């Protein structure tokens, strides 16, 4: 398959692994931002191909994982209302709220529907004028344009029974929070390719400069990730810290200006809470004043419930890259995909789930490949 | 195609009275269902079918079908309901003989759709050379069902001795996959969710009894057979290794997956190893018989793309690993539920 097979070519992957071994002289800790990258690393056992000097810390870029528990509870409360259809991306359904998840709310009679796009939810609203339709708008910069477009169209076509429960997170403020944290170990980033396909590379230059960290915009296939690691290690070894783009085939320097425009039209930057990390200033997107009528939180005056996280769940440390999933005492014991204590064990992009699914018995995965 | 003999003008939809045990129930069975499946055993109109067992060892299996939509590219719920039980019996190393059929119909279900489903079941049963010899029909109130549910059960005569079973799998055995995986799951998802694909992806729903018989007729010692339905290839092999307390390694590059299935899985973040099939199976056989088994299977149209995908070893009990396309290893585990499409 074009754009897949050539980036999973075993020989090319081994060549990059050898090249990394050749240039590395001392220990480095890199963080891949995106959950999709974490999943690829674990699924293909890419970390087993790296020299011992290179450690990959898994970042907070799983939208499901960082959605605050309070918001999950709000989505569940909405799903339990009469004549209300809650639409969501599939992998939000199993994320535990403080007492239920959306799958259980559905089993108890809630009208919860999986959609592939917010525009599908808008269509459901058009087709069900007697019901209220709420889309659970979760995601990073990647999903923001489509969510913005759904709200924009709802306003313009006067689809008044549609609204969104928004939980949009922005990557650069989270990177800065991680870099400023006491005991930070991250020395270089593999930035999330899809986020940059929308936003471009502009906002990463000041971060690379201020914190003296190399930032390599990286794709999601094995070869992408190894090339990203290679470029990042090369910069570190040379004492450089600039923004580089490994994912040129998808990420133009300026990103996607049309997508950015619709996001700016509908959303404004707000402070938001990240599950496991806490509030981060100016790190989320909220609906602008003129689109407030489509804010489900306000429309239904949802009570803010102070929800408790399980004390045994160390997802905060995992999302900050401080520990690996299998280092959490609950991992694979009291916390499994069937009974997750925290969101990273639920989503396929969550680091705990990726570790559990692909390397239940051992970590790291033994490699039979001799790079 | 024959037209529906039922007076549709009077009853274009199933009513509660069709399940009430009175004259309308009798009419539904006498005029619509029984004539389609007519055979001497069914026509005795007994509470059950009485027959002389056609062999010493029998296999018995059951399967319920709740698929939505009921008509999908490559099949329908009727076709699936016959294939499901026939295939389960075939996986016991048996040739299916007799089936029972239980319908649960929802009030308001179009009679014409029931007719189409019955016709499809009849065609599939004829292809499988099985007879439907007993059955039952119930009607539930509107809103308490999803149009139509079908249960089929059946018996078949075991054709190999000893019959295949997970407990017979041994270290050193090879795993043969009968063809490409994931088409049923993706075709259903595309039909259900209205995904517009460039090509029409059809379900692989098919009868596997003849393909299995080609292995038995070739005298292959079958250690285990498993049709890969819900949960896909991954769940099938994990279940077997769990029961056998053995370990298996699958070579990812040998597992055939069509371009369409791969593309949809890549877009939605699904894993074809966990995606449902309805016309694929694995055969676990001694390594010494692998060439003969492959040749036998490839002689059948449903097995012409059969491949050896892995090997059984005496490693960690229940452990299934995959050698990835880049030469590393990953572990396959059971999913806790259905695969859910990811956000981005």
Q: How does this structure look, described?
A:
- The complex is a heterodimer of chains A (371) and B (344).
- With 371 residues, chain A is α/β, with parallel strands linked by helices.
- Chain A has a single domain (1-359), classed as Rossmann fold.
- Helix content of chain A is 36%, strand content 19%.
- Chain A has a six-stranded mixed β-sheet with strand order 4-3-5-6-11-10, sandwiched between helices. Chain A has a five-stranded parallel β-sheet with strand order 2-1-7-8-9.
- The two termini of chain A are 25 Å apart.
- With 344 residues, chain B is an alpha+beta fold.
- Chain B has two domains: 16-158, PurM-like, N-terminal domain (60s Ribosomal Protein L30, Chain: A, 2-Layer Sandwich), CATH 3.30.1330; 166-332, PurM-like C-terminal domain (Phosphoribosyl-aminoimidazole Synthetase, Chain A, domain 2), CATH 3.90.650.
- Helices cover 30% and strands 23% of the residues of chain B.
- Chain B contains nine helices and 13 strands.
- In chain B, the strands form three sheets. In chain B, strands 8-10-7-11-9-12-13 form a seven-stranded mixed β-sheet.
- In chain B, strand 2 and strand 3 form a beta hairpin.
- The longest helix of chain B is centred in the middle third of the chain and has 18 residues, at 111-128.
- Chain B is globular and about 65 Å long.
- Classes of the chains: A alpha/beta (371), B alpha+beta (344).
- At the A-B interface, helix 1, helix 2 and helix 15 of A face helix 8 and strand 13 of B.
- Chain A: It holds the Pfam family HypD.
- Chain A: Keywords: Iron, Metal-binding.
- Chain A: Belongs to the HypD family.
- Chain A: GO terms for molecular function: 4 iron, 4 sulfur cluster binding; carbon monoxide binding; iron ion binding.
- Chain A: It comes from Pelagicoccus mobilis.
- Chain B: InterPro entries: HypE, PurM-like_C_dom, PurM-like_C_sf, PurM-like_N, PurM-like_N_sf.
């Amino acid at each position: 398959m074009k754009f897949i097979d050539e980036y999973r070519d075993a020989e090319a992957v081994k060549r990059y692994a050898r090249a990394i071994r050749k240039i590395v002289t001392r220990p480095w800790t890199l963080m891949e931002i995106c959950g999709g990258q974490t999943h690829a690393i674990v699924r293909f056992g890419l970390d087993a191909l790296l020299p011992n000097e290179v450690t990959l810390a898994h970042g907070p870029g799983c939208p499901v994982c960082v959605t605050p528990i309070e918001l999950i509870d709000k989505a569940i409360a909405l799903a339990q209302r009469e004549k209300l259809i809650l639409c969501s991306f599939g992998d939000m359904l199993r994320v535990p709220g403080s007492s239920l998840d959306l799958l259980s709310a559905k089993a108890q009679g809630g009208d919860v529907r999986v959609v592939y796009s917010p525009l599908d939810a808008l269509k459901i609203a058009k087709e069900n004028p007697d019901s209220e339709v709420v889309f659970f708008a979760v995601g990073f910069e990647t999903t923001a344009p489509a969510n913005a477009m759904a709200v924009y169209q709802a306003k313009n076509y006067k689809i008044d029974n549609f609204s969104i429960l928004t939980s949009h997170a922005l990557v650069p403020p989270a990177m800065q929070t991680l870099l400023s944290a006491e005991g930070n170990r991250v020395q270089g980033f593999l930035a999330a390719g899809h986020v940059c396909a929308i936003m471009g590379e502009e906002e990463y230059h000041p971060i690379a400069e201020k914190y003296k960290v190399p930032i390599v915009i990286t794709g999601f296939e094995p070869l992408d990730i190894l090339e990203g690691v290679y470029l990042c290690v090369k910069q570190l070894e040379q004492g450089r810290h600039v923004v580089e783009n490994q994912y040129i085939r998808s990420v133009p320097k300026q990103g996607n200006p049309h997508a950015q425009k619709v996001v700016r039209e509908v959303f404004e930057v707000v402070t938001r809470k990240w599950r496991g990390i806490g509030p981060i200033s100016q790190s989320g997107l909220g609906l602008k004043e003129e689109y407030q009528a489509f804010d489900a939180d306000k429309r239904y005056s949802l009570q803010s419930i102070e929800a408790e996280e399980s004390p045994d769940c160390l997802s905060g440390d995992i999302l900050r890259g401080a520990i690996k999933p299998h280092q959490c005492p609950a991992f694979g014991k009291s916390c499994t995909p069937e009974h997750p204590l925290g969101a990273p064990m639920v989503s396929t992009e969550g680091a705990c789930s990726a570790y559990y699914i692909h390397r239940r018995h051992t970590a790291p995965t033994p490699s039979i490949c001799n790079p | 195609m024959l037209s529906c003999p039922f007076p549709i003008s009077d009853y274009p939809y199933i009513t509660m009275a069709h399940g009430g045990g009175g004259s309308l129930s009798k009419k539904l069975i006498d005029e619509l269902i029984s004539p389609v499946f007519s055979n001497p055993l069914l026509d005795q109109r007994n509470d059950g079918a009485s027959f002389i067992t056609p062999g010493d060892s029998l296999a018995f299996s059951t399967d319920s079908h709740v698929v939505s939509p009921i008509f999908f590219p490559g099949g329908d719920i009727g076709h699936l309901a016959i294939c499901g039980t026939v295939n389960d019996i075939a996986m016991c190393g048996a040739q299916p003989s007799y089936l029972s059929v239980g319908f649960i119909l929802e009030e308001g279900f179009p009679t014409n759709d029931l007719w189409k489903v019955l016709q499809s079941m009849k065609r599939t049963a004829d292809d499988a050379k099985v007879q439907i010899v007993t059955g039952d029909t119930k009607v539930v109130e509107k809103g308490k069902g999803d149009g139509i549910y079908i249960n089929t059960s059946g018996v078949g005569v075991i054709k190999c001795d000893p019959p295949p079973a997970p407990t017979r799998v041994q270290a050193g055995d090879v795993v043969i996959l009968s063809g490409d995986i994931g088409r049923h799951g993706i075709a259903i998802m595309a039909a259900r969710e209205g995904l517009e694909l460039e090509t029409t992806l059809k379900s692989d729903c098919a009868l596997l009894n003849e393909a299995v018989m080609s292995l038995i007729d070739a005298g292959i010692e079958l250690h285990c057979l498993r049709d890969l339905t819900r949960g896909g290839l991954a769940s099938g092999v994990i279940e077997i290794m769990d029961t056998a307390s053995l370990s298996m390694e699958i070579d990812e590059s040998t597992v055939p997956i069509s371009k369409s299935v791969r593309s949809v899985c890549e877009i939605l973040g699904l894993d074809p190893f966990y995606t449902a099939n309805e016309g694929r199976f694995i055969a676990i056989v001694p390594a010494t018989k692998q060439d003969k088994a492959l040749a036998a299977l490839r002689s059948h149209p449903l097995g012409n793309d059969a491949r050896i995908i892995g090997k059984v070893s005496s490693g960690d009990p229940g452990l299934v690993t995959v050698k990835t396309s880049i030469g590393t290893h990953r572990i396959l585990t059971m999913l806790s539920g259905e695969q859910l499409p990811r956000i981005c």
